[in-house]
């Protein structure tokens, strides 16, 4: 992150809740590593000279837009248009604060359903979807909408997790096993949350995008290592997963007996002891897919 970006980010922190700070730290930390490789695949680089009309669909905290803002030349951004949309008003609220606090250029927001945006046809040169198609039920409806709103020759791009992605799982599994009570952790944590296709398999994705009418389809597997600064960063970055695990796998009785705050403290204590108060590396495996729309 540049010094200017860091200064802008500090302004955002003064205007958001602790809950929102967790999402923002993840956006500027490990999550950007999972989104950034998509940019060059979508021909969005520091050498880009032509203005873009970009749609960040199912944007979350708008990490895709964040990376585009950090990458494209200012002169290009000044002539471009960008729209960030998500079905969550809370996420859009965070993005609005980011736009102002981080001085993003020509970025607007809207609350929209990625499967039915209602946006005009042939509106965008680029549509990006970061880490969502393996989570949204009925993802083909998202693809249909993307094709509709892309201009002829427009580029679609998305990222999903590979089925063998480990990421935060080994550390959380070991921590749960160390708790002084039965903290259930499933034998397998699936990367995909629905049964529509297999968005964790590069070969399947390539075939499927072609069958959906995309041309010049490229599907690449990106592996990497992210260094966590300390236990605090782990708990802050992956805090949302703790609550999800508790709600999904634990009984109501267990959740009442051991609330989220207690679990977070136990997790942090385990990690601090395991890594002796130092940082450590985690591995990730993410799929980047792109395709062109011919009309």
Number of strands: 7
Using the coordinates above, name the CATH class: Alpha Beta
Helix content: 40-55%
**Radius of gyration computed on alpha carbons:** 20 Å
Question: What would you call the quaternary organization?
Answer: single chain
Q: Major beta sheet, specifics? A: 7 strands, mixed
Please identify which CATH superfamily we are dealing with: Vaccinia Virus protein VP39
Number of helices: 14
The fraction of residues in strands falls at: 15-25%
Uncertain spans: 8-14
Category from helices, strands and their pairing: alpha/beta
Order of helices and strands: HHHHEHHEHEEHEHHEHHHHE
Number of separate structural domains:
1
CATH-derived architecture = 3-Layer(aba) Sandwich
Shape: globular
Rounded average pLDDT: 93
Q: What is the end-to-end distance?
A: 39 Å
Strand order of the largest sheet: 3-2-1-4-5-7-6
